[in-house]
Amino acid sequence: MSTGEDRRVDVAGVSVSMCHYVDGRRVDSPTTFETRSPNDWDVVLGEVARGDDAVADLAMAAATDAFDDWAARGPAGRAEVLYRLADVIDDHVEEISLVETHDMAFNLESMRARLAHRGAENFRNYADLAVDHVEREWDSKGTHNRIIRMPAGPAVVITPWNAPWMLSTWKVAPALAAGNPVVLKPAEWSPLSASLLGDLADEAGVPPGVLNIVQGIGEEVGAALVADPRARRISFTGSPEAGRHIGRAAATNLVPFTAELGGKGPLVVFADADVEAAATKAAWQYDDSGQVCLAGTRLLVEQSVADDFLDRFHQHVDGLVLGPSTDPATDIAPMVHPDHVDTVLGFIDRARDNGDEIVRGGGRADIGDLWIQPTLVRPRDNDSEVVQREVFGPVLTLQTFDTEDEAVALANSTDYGLSAIVYTTSPERAARVGESIRAGTVWVNTFLVRDLTAPFGGCGISGIGREGGRYALEFHADLKTLQVLDGSTS
Ligand code: NAD
To answer: Model's pTM, two decimal places?
Structure first.
């Protein structure tokens, strides 16, 4: 490990550090891992520092040392810093967008138009919420009671490779606003936009140790961070499998953790729906090559409109353009990594072996090894693996139903419960079905519209706890009741 030295590479004209960011300085590791561009897998973007126990220890020590001062600033003092960081992010939207699109193949135009700014919004929103928050005060049983939110201590934040910029900022912002210094570990398949966040934090004057970024492999440095007893909160987004490991580490140290995990969302289309709107949105579920936890991957369509829906769906999917994420014409960019392509193709092969019908797609697209054709599977029955397990690729299933009860039963028939999409024009049905589906978010006649103050998370194996708005701020705080006997102080 070498402290204070930086190694940088040029990614599409943007200088990006390949090192960790600890205590306001760059720190290198003796070993590295490669990050490549999914748009052209022959291109090695950089050799990123591969964190180990020593770096985890250094980062946790920095966050622990920074805690008292950061907590003592109070919500308004911290908000000043976070507003500056938000402004700096807004000034660097182009660089963030370019790095993300090359590192992870996130659509460049979406980054420029929405998601790079969303990072700034995350910091502003949580700063606002923390400042505006007023805790309850009340008199009872001859005492005056006041609730106080205490910052909990250093938070370890672990993020997945899909939407890395959006998710890192979404999870770091509430921790910092609540007064907890952060050690962020981004995913090893898309580490670079998080590295940029270190530069932007520097530019915004975030005090040393308040935001630390450690690069590396989940089972190595990630495991070391979550096992460190100095971590007082763990905020994780990723797969249920890794979530279980992290939950075990959290249990050992008795540390609260939130886990935002996989999804297998239904997209339910009732006969009374605007079928064209539903079919358009169903085709959208192939966006980002289906590498979206919230995607409605199980199309559940009322039998009487199934043919009409399917005709329209095919028309929309026929019009989707596969290409590099940097091309504005592209609808479906490459998958993140060849290993993930193999995982997704494995699901398709097993579906075929199971007797599921491959209605369209079903293999690699001819434009390159990292693209999979938008695939639609009609499963043999509801127990098919492709219905029951998250594929996290451009693979949707199609099932039909005859009654509302059947639709709800199918919607609730997996172990997941992250999100659902419902198409209906009936307000009564929207309310009934919306209430009956077990999921953290149910959208009716829309998709992916997010109010950052709403709770966010999953039921079942889709997650534990809620992030978003005040829910995330509460997670990052220890609540105290201060109770003073009436008349005992003057
Ligand atoms: P993953 O679980 O493999 O990895 C996620 C992160 O955890 C990575 O940074 C990884 O390095 C780290 N990690 C892995 N094992 C670890 C361990 N033992 N200890 C500590 N850290 C460890 O997930 P992924 O493949 O990167 O992401 C895809 C998954 O994330 C999908 O299941 C997707 O649905 C889910 N996801 C969920 C949401 C949500 O909001 N619910 C959002 C995005 C992605």
So the answer is: 0.96
d(CA 38, CA 96): 17
DSSP 418: S
> Residues lining ligand 1, judged by CB closer than 6 Å?
158-162, 167, 185, 187-188, 218-219, 222-223, 226, 237-239, 242, 245-246, 260-263, 293, 390, 392, 418, 458, 463
Task: Report d(CA 186, CA 21) in Å as an integer.
Answer: 12
- Asked about 260 being catalytic, the answer comes back as yes
> At 167, is the secondary structure helix, strand, or coil?
helix
**CB atoms closer than 10 angstroms to residue 5:** 11
Q: How far is CA 169 from CA 159, 174, 176, 451, in A?
A: 10, 9, 10, 15
pLDDT for residue 372 is more than 80: yes
Q: Which atom of ligand 1 is nearest to the CA of 218?
A: 11
- Of the residues 260, 302, 390, 467, only one is catalytic, namely 260
Which of these, 197, 180, 198, lies nearest to 25 by C-alpha position? 198
Residues 276-312 pLDDT 10s = 999 999 999 999 999 999 999 999 999 999 999 999 9
Q: Burial, 460: exposed, middle or buried (Cβ in 10 Å; 0-12, 13-18, 19+)?
A: middle
Over residues 208-223, mean pLDDT: 98
Provide the 10 A C-beta neighbour count for residue 303: 12
Asked whether 301 and 279 are in contact (CB, 8 A), the reply is no
Distance 22 CA to ligand 1 centre (A): 22
Higher pLDDT, 221 or 3: 221
For residue 372, what are the β-bridge partners?
364
Residue type, 59: A
β-strand pairing of 257-260 with 463-464: antiparallel
Q: Look at ligand 1, atom 43, and give the residue with the nearest C-alpha.
A: 293
Handedness of CA 293, 35, 50, 195 (dihedral sign): negative
